[in-house]
């Protein structure tokens, strides 16, 4: 399984009164990594994959240890743990080589902005996501594994 790696700079304004990154700011870090993963790495030159819109249906965050300001960016690793017909789950670790600060996951729903409703994951998107699927995923974690997904 491949992991998407995002190098996230820390900003002085990310700190709270206690001198560490505020818990709400971690959601922004996850968003930056997710956008980099889904939009910049979308398959194919000029591909419309993931560009039509998506919404976050759920976040789960476990704060493992405080992260304090420093000049070096923090590493965010992202991978896919579940691919459904019309949603996917992305897992993350915000970390340094020697320690993890946050473990999190986000359920993302592709969205048709023009129609104003969720849409199914396309075959091209699924193919891209499968490259980042966790090795421990079961067939139940992938809707239609081995079958074409309706666009």
Automatic annotation (TrEMBL):
Checking InterPro entries in the record gives: 4-hydroxybenzoyl-CoA_TE, HotDog_dom_sf
UniProt keywords (A-Z) are: Hydrolase
Gene Ontology terms for molecular function: hydrolase activity
UniProt EC number? 3.1.2.-
Give the PANTHER family listed for this entry. 4-HYDROXYBENZOYL-COA THIOESTERASE FAMILY MEMBER, LONG-CHAIN ACYL-COA THIOESTERASE FADM
Protein name per its UniProtKB record: Acyl-CoA thioesterase
Taxonomic source organism: Streptomyces cremeus
Top-level EC class = hydrolase
- Pfam families from the entry? 4HBT_2
């Amino acid at each position: 399984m491949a992991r998407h790696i995002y190098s996230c700079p820390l900003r002085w304004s990310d700190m709270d009164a206690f001198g560490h990154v505020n818990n709400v700011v971690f959601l922004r870090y996850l968003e930056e990594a997710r956008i980099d993963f889904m939009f910049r790495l979308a398959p194919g030159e000029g591909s419309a994959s993931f560009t039509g819109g998506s919404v976050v249906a759920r976040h789960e965050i476990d704060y493992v240890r405080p992260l304090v300001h420093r000049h070096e960016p923090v590493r965010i690793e992202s991978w896919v743990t579940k691919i459904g017909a019309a949603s996917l789950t992305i897992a993350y670790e915000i970390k340094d080589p020697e320690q993890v600060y946050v473990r999190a996951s986000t359920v993302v729903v592709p969205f048709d902005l023009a129609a104003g409703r969720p849409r199914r994951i396309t075959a091209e998107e699924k193919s891209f996501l499968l490259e980042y699927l966790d090795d421990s995923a079961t067939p139940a974690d992938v809707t239609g594994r081995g079958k074409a997904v309706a666009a």
